[in-house]
Amino acid sequence: MKGSVKTNSFNWELKFSVAGKVFKDVSFASPLVGFIVTELGGVYKTTDGGNNWTNVMNLGFPYYWYGVDALNADTVVISGFNNQVLVNRFQPYAGGSGPIYLSNTDIVNGVIKMGISDLFEDIKFQGGFRISTNLRDNDYFASFQNLRRRIDWGLTYYRLVQNDFPIYNPNTEPIKTLLSNKLFSNIYMANFSFPFDQVRSIRATVAYRSDRVVLKTDANFPSALGYQDTLLRYGMARLEYVHDNTINPDLNIWNGLRYKIYMDVASRLVSGDQLGGNTFNFGTDIRYYYPIYRNFIWAGRGAADVSWGNQKLIYYLGGVDGWIAPKFNNANRPAPDATYAFQSLALNLRGYKQNAANGNNAVVINSEFRLPIFTTFFNRPVNNAFLRNFQVVQFLDLGTAWNGQFKKIGRPDEIYGIPPVQVRIKTAGVGPFIGGYGFGMRSTLLGYFLRLDAGWPMGGFFNGKPQWYFAMGLDF
Fold this sequence. Notes:
Layout: E1 23-28, E2 34-38, E3 42-46, E4 54-58, E5 63-70, E6 76-82, E7 91-92, E8 109-117, E9 123-132, E10 139-146, E11 152-163, H1 174-177, E12 181-195, E13 200-215, E14 230-244, E15 247-250, E16 253-268, E17 278-293, E18 296-308, E19 312-317, E20 340-346, E21 357-359, E22 361-372, H2 373-377, H3 385-388, E23 391-402, E24 414-418, E25 421-425, E26 429-430, E27 433-445, E28 448-457, E29 467-472
């Protein structure tokens, strides 16, 4: 049976709307009690048939709810997307090889997270796993968070499985570098947070970490079975002070100031006949967002890290956070007289590959003008998430990294070639910093916030081909 309905025969009346939220689904458990879910993690509840609605959950990015089923007046099942990184920790030092991935090494992967909480979100249980397209490099985690009292605390377990991690030194273990391996990382972590007020808080984590590298069997090298596993175990702690008085009028748009100051300590746990090591790292990350016109803002950031100890942390300067298919400069080798336990990235520095410079100290300065086209110049709501969140960006980045004391800071050279034949070229920049500039675009697709940037090194006006960056994640 076919037919048509004349919509003008109904008297439609807008009962409820929320600025910046896109309603995706609604479900009623009874004629009076119902729920609405939105993009950006919002859930609203009514107990009077839809005349009044109360916000009962507002998780924000990266949660995108697309379906809801009300089982009863107090229980609902919600489905959607979430592209949040499970756990992002320092990696074991890989001997200066790259590229560097701070999370799963696969370019495309899917995350499944499940959770349950009470009505006021004071008690939360979460679990999840990330499956890579090769079905081998996967992550798993489980978390419990207690937010009932002023001191928040929680427990988290994280496991990473990664194939062919370049952990061996070719100078001391040449055979192992030629064999396939599998890295198993396990982190058991407890976290605590004490808020002084709505803006300021102090946070701490303590953790036990183990990294086990297992050599795979090889038909061409049967002796691989005789090698013992490489096992690294660490006790870790982090203390940070956080100040955040920003407001978030739109996705990837903030107004105000936020910063954090932190200290990391890691101690290698060994038996009595082995030599242990200690890693210390002190750093800060300061971000200021200045409104220019409506949602058009200028965003500035300064970040610095200093590492010391008999097993330091090495920073590779260059690239962007969340870079898909990153490129790495293998010609720039770490200092041979330094001993490193972990590695990380110093970001952002666009116009360069990863490892434009490296060392146990790093400083970066970033400037971005962010213009959301449709939410800045149009007064009407835009239901399409890609258009609503579409932004154009102009950026300028400065950065440096060096090994040793502060007096050794200097502008890094560009290095080409492989030892013993290498060429060093003076780079353009400001003082001890090399720099890059360019333009980019931002928006959301299927719940993921995507970034596309084209960066040029300083030293010319759009001279040569740009370095392209396709990445995921908010802010810098």
